[in-house]
Design goal:
alpha/beta; Rossmann fold; P-loop_NTPase; Sulfotransferase family protein
């Protein structure tokens, strides 16, 4: 009998997570559910991500009140709100997916989970484990400055930046000083390694994610047939490929320096694969 697996991907954001979800979702024996990002555990346990908590409108509450007793599908934000309000239903949802004929793999790809505590990750592992479901984790890491620049370009496309401010000005305003930003890669890795044994954790660099070698290795880890050709089908790739000016990278480097140092120490190949790792000296 094929082992039932729940695959957890806590990011990193802008590091191929959408591609991972689509790749798995198109694999035989897989059902990744109806939502793109579940956004459950970060919304209810991380103050910084409380903005993801669904504030249900009167209409949403009415739809939910009618859907439950009539056993109608719980969809979209109604489903997300239900799980955030009743976390046990998160587990029920994925158990149900794995009970479908032919399905052996499901999962949650939510980059906001990068900051979850070891206790929360362990709760996921142990709760599924009691039902004979194995929880495994995958984590991708992209050149930090390139990742931040990609996120800023996305904010520009979505109208989240003032038109009076250039991309360079916005980038320096956001990352020009030292201090906390996104959860450091090293922190997420340390937390994951405290919860998952080595054979249940797949950590990789974004810069190699789409290669035949990494796709084959990741597919074996996830328990799906390898499709190396899918590396050319990137999802949610930024439409604006304008290169980040070198002087701008130098200005924001102090903000990201500790992440470069920590990851290149763990993954020496990042010194060659991350464009701005050379700024470490």
């Amino acid at each position: 009998m094929t082992e039932k697996t729940f695959l957890l991907c806590p990011g990193a954001a802008k590091s191929g997570t959408t591609w991972i979800r689509h790749y798995l979702g198109e694999s035989p024996g897989t059902d990744m559910g109806r939502l793109g990002e579940m956004q459950v555990w970060d919304a209810i346990t991380l103050p910084a991500n409380a903005r993801y908590r669904i504030a249900p409108s009167a209409l949403l509450r009415l739809e939910y009140a009618l859907a439950r007793p009539l056993r109608l599908p719980i969809r979209g934000n109604m489903l997300r709100w239900e799980m955030q309000t009743h976390p046990d239903r998160y587990f029920d949802y994925f158990r149900k997916l794995l009970r479908r004929p032919g399905v052996h793999l499901t999962g949650d790809v939510s980059p906001g989970y990068a900051g979850l505590s070891a206790e929360t990750f362990a709760r996921l592992r142990d709760t599924f484990g009691r039902d004979g479901i194995r929880t495994r984790a995958v984590f991708t890491m992209r050149d930090p400055i390139e990742r931040a620049w990609s996120a800023l370009k996305m904010d520009r496309r979505k109208g989240r930046l003032p038109e009076s401010q250039s991309d360079a000005e916005a980038f320096v305003a956001r990352f020009g000083g030292e201090g906390p930003g996104d959860v450091p890669y090293a922190d997420t890795l340390e937390t994951l390694e405290a919860v998952f044994p080595e054979n249940d954790l797949f950590a990789t660099l974004y810069e190699t994610l789409f290669t035949s070698e990494t796709i084959t290795a990741f597919s074996g880890f996830a328990g799906v047939p390898a499709r190396p050709a899918a590396g050319g089908a990137r999802v949610n790739a930024a439409g604006d490929r304008a290169a980040l000016p070198e002087d701008l990278a130098r200005r924001v480097f102090p903000h990201f320096e500790s992440d470069y140092a920590a990851v290149t120490a763990r993954f020496p190949e990042a010194r060659q694969l991350w464009p701005h790792a050379r700024l470490l000296g």
